[in-house]
Write a structure and sequence with these properties.
By secondary structure, the protein is of the alpha/beta class. 28% of the residues lie in helices and 25% in strands. It contains 12 helices and 21 strands. Strands 4, 14, 15, 16, 17, 18, 19, 20 and 21 form a 9-stranded mixed sheet that branches. Strands 5-6-7-8-9-11-12-13 form an 8-stranded parallel barrel, surrounded by 4 helices. A 3-stranded antiparallel sheet has the order 1-2-3. Strand 17 and strand 18 form a beta hairpin. Helix 2 packs parallel to helix 9. The longest helix has 19 residues. The N and C termini lie far apart (63 Å). 47% of the residues are buried. Bound molecules: ligand LLP.
C-alpha cells in the first residue's frame, strides 16, 4: 500500500496535490512519500518480530540523503556497493556499524575507508577480494569482518539483467567452492568470519527461489559447523518484487514467515541474526516521476504524447522494457481518450516511458509515472545535456525539496577547454 491517491479527481502524494508540487518545483520532478517509505520499512521489521534481524536498505535503489536519513532514524542498516554510498550513509546520519558492503570490485581505498568507518561486514565475492581485504586490514592494523557472498545457482525467474544467482552470473562464489574459500578466510589473520550471504536477483515474485537459496545456504552452514566455522548472521540479500502492473509478489510478512518456518528446526537458529538488503520493495512504490505533456503528436499508426521527462530521467522502460503505470494527475477536465506512446525529448527511438497507454490528456497536462521511487533518479544521466530532475519528499501536507534541479552550469562544471582555446590562440 502507498500514499498516492486521487482526491476529487486530483492525484495526491499524502496530503499534497501533485499539481502544487509541479507549480512549486517544476517538472520533471521525482516525488517521494515519507509515510510510504516508513510503512514499507516497518513491514520488514514487524514481520521479523523478535527474531534477531537487521534490515540493510540497499542504497543503490534510491540514495537521496532524505531517504537514507529517514530510514536511519527508523533503525535501518544499509547495504552499500561503493565508497560513495558509504559517504552518503554517513552524511545522512546512518550508523556505520549497521553497514554491509557488497559489490564485485571493491578497491583498496574503498576497503580502507570502510574499515576506518567501522562497518558491520564486507560481503566478499571472490578469493582475490578476500586476499586484498586481508592485506588492506593488515596495513591498517585492523581485523575485517567478512561474509562470503555465495552464488547458490538458483533461477530467480526474473529479467536476465537483474538475475544474479545463476552460475553464469559474475556475482558471488559458486556454492561448491564456498567451503574452500571459507577455509582460506579462516586462515587469513586479519579477517574475521561473521556471516554468510547471497542475493539471487531482483523483482522476484515467488517465494520458492528464496527458499531454495536458503536451503542451499543452510546445507553449507552445516558443513561449516563441522569445521568449527561459526556464523553470526545469515544475509539473504534483497530482491522481493513489487506490483508494477499485474504482479502480486509476496509481502514481507509472507516472506519472513516462510523463512522463519524453514529455519525453526535448525539448531541454534534463534541466535542466527537474519539480514535483508531490500531496495525496490521499500522505495519503488514510494515515488513517482512527475512530468508535463509538451505536445500531442497524432500519427498515422501511432499517437505520441511527448513529455518533458525522458530516458535520461527514468531509464527502466528503455533498458528493461519495464512497464510502469502512467496516470493523469488532474482528471477534472473533459478530454478525449486515445492510445499513446508516452515518449521523451531525447533523440533516441528507445526514449519512451510507456507504450500503448489509454489516456485522456491534452498538451500542458501533468502525468505521474508510478513506481519510480527505486532505480529512478539514481540511474538518471545527463544525456543530451539535460540537467537531472529535482527530488521532493512529501510528509503529510508539506513538500520538501530534497534535491534541487541541476542547473545548466552544473553540466560542464568539471570540464575544461584546451589551453590554446582558453588562451584565445588560433
Ligand atoms: N543486495 C545486492 C547485493 C544487490 O545487488 C541488490 C540489487 C540489492 C540488494 C537490492 O535488490 P532489490 O531489493 O532492490 O531487488 N536497476 C534494476 C535493478 C538492479 C538491482 C541490482 N541489485 C531495475 O531497475 O530493475
Amino acid at each position: 500500500m502507498d500514499h498516492f491517491d486521487y482526491r476529487d479527481g486530483v492525484l495526491y502524494a499524502e496530503d499534497v496535490p501533485l499539481t502544487r508540487i509541479a507549480d512549486e518545483f517544476g517538472t520533471p520532478c521525482y516525488v517521494y512519500s515519507k509515510a510510504t517509505l516508513a510503512r514499507h520499512f516497518r513491514a520488514y521489521t514487524e514481520a521479523l518480530g523478535s527474531h534477531p534481524h537487521l534490515i540493510c536498505y540497499a542504497v543503490k535503489a534510491n540514495s537521496n540523503l532524505a531517504v537514507l536519513g529517514l530510514l536511519a532514524r527508523l533503525g535501518a542498516g544499509f547495504d552499500i556497493v561503493s565508497v560513495g554510498e558509504l559517504e552518503r550513509v554517513l552524511a545522512a546520519g546512518g550508523d556505520p556499524a549497521k553497514v554491509v558492503f557488497s559489490g564485485v570490485a571493491k578497491q583498496e581505498a574503498e576497503m580502507a575507508r570502510a574499515l576506518e568507518a567501522g562497518i558491520k561486514c564486507f560481503n566478499v565475492e571472490s578469493r582475490p577480494e578476500l586476499e586484498r581485504l586481508d592485506a588492506v586490514a593488515r596495513r591498517l592494523g585492523k581485523v575485517a569482518p567478512v561474509s562470503l557472498r555465495v552464488n547458490p545457482d538458483v533461477d530467480a525467474g526474473t529479467h536476465p539483467y537483474i538475475s544474479t544467482g545463476l552460475k553464469d552470473n559474475k556475482f558471488g562464489i559458486p556454492v561448491d567452492e564456498a567451503l574452500a574459500v571459507y577455509a582460506l578466510a579462516a586462515s587469513l589473520p586479519n579477517l574475521k568470519i561473521v556471516g554468510l550471504d547471497c542475493h539471487i536477483g531482483s523483482q522476484l515474485t515467488e517465494l520458492s527461489p528464496f527458499l531454495d537459496a536458503l536451503d542451499r545456504l543452510l546445507a553449507l552452514l552445516a558443513r561449516l559447523r563441522e569445521r568449527d566455522i561459526e556464523i553470526e548472521h545469515l544475509d539473504l540479500g534483497g530482491g522481493l518484487g513489487v506490483p508494477y502492473r499485474h504482479e502480486r509478489p509476496p509481502q514481507p510478512f509472507d516472506y519472513a514467515t516462510a523463512l522463519l518456518e524453514r529455519l525453526a528446526g535448525w539448531p541454534g537458529s534463534e541466535r542466527l541474526t537474519l539480514l535483508f538488503e531490500p531496495g525496490r520493495s521499500i522505495a519503488a512504490n514510494a515515488g513517482v516521476l512527475l512530468t508535463r505533456v509538451e505536445f500531442l503528436k497524432p500519427g498515422e499508426t501511432k499517437h505520441f504524447a511527448i513529455v518533458d521527462a525522458g530516458m535520461n530521467d527514468l531509464i527502466r522502460p528503455a533498458l528493461y522494457q519495464a512497464w510502469q503505470a502512467i496516470l493523469p494527475v488532474d482528471t477534472r477536465h473533459a478530454r478525449d481518450t486515445a492510445t499513446f506512446d508516452v515518449v521523451g525529448p531525447v533523440c533516441e527511438t528507445g526514449d519512451f516511458l510507456g507504450k500503448d497507454r489509454e489516456l485522456a490528456i491534452a498538451a500542458g497536462d501533468l502525468l505521474a509515472v508510478r513506481s519510480a521511487g527505486a532505480y529512478g533518479f539514481v540511474m538518471a544521466s545527463n544525456y543530451n545535456s539535460r540537467p537531472r530532475p529535482a527530488e521532493v519528499m512529501v510528509a503529510g501536507d508539506e513538500a520538501h525539496l530534497v534535491r534541487r534541479r541541476e542547473r545548466l552550469e552544473n553540466l560542464w562544471a568539471g570540464e575544461a577547454l584546451l589551453p590554446d582555446v582558453a588562451d584565445g590562440e588560433a
